[in-house]
Amino acid sequence: MQGRSSLYNQGFLLLEKPMDSQQSRVLVQLRDLILKGEFVPGERLAEIPLAEKLGASRTPVRLALASLEHEGLIEQSPGGGYQMRRFTSQEIADAIRVRGVVEGFAARLLAEDGASRQLLRELHECLEAGDKAVNKPEMDLDDYTAYVEMNDRFHKLIMQGCRNVALQRVMEMLDRQPFGSPSAMLPMQSSMEEGHQWMKQAHRTHHSLVQAIERGQGSRAQALGEEHVEIARMNLDYALERPELAAELMPGLRLVSKARG
């Protein structure tokens, strides 16, 4: 237990003390590899091979692994060190729902406290970019990419604009979970036309959310924020029911079990 406690404390030290550039880079690289499905559940994450793969020394790798365990992305290995863990669909669905609650409350704060002109201008720029991507007979890959970039920016603006540090920290934690980011579970239907319709629906909610913020409708803004993530939850179910499609578009999904608990 002493070793586990020591590593756990290292994880807290990572949060309390600024990381040097190499340590930060290694942490970002490792997290990215995990979320892209580079490792399979149960695979041992050894320091030396990882250090060689990332072109880094063992110390930043060791500290990054401790931090990733603290985030819940990896777990202690029975034989010592760390291994890749498996996530349940229930865990992911719960994280998506929590995102809705957090973003909904952030939107409510914006509506009740008042959003700055600059923030509203940037939100409207997002709406216009989204309109350009989805309001056409067919979407191509460039349109999809543009929508993803707009969607990520839109949600970041809501969180930054609410100026609630506690909410922002919770969102940072959720962003580090598999498929926890705003665009991680965007429509991935086998039919491009079907996915296009889902994106239109999601973007209509963006419009309604900005309207509620501008009108000071706090309760409505919160409800819309919570409702908005239901599309992501439905797409998680869709992906789990069609693993052959998910494997190509979302390799990290192999870390997720269909088990609901």
UniProtKB/TrEMBL annotation:
Pfam families referenced in this protein's UniProt entry, alphabetically: FCD (PF07729), GntR (PF00392)
Highest taxon of source: Bacteria
Keywords assigned: DNA-binding, Transcription, Transcription regulation
Domain HTH gntR-type residue range list: 20-87
InterPro entries from the UniProt entry: GntR_C (IPR011711), TF_FadR/GntR_C (IPR008920), Tscrpt_reg_HTH_GntR (IPR000524), WH-like_DNA-bd_sf (IPR036388), WH_DNA-bd_sf (IPR036390)
Signal peptide span: none
Descriptive protein name: GntR family transcriptional regulator of vanillate catabolism
Species for this entry: Variovorax soli
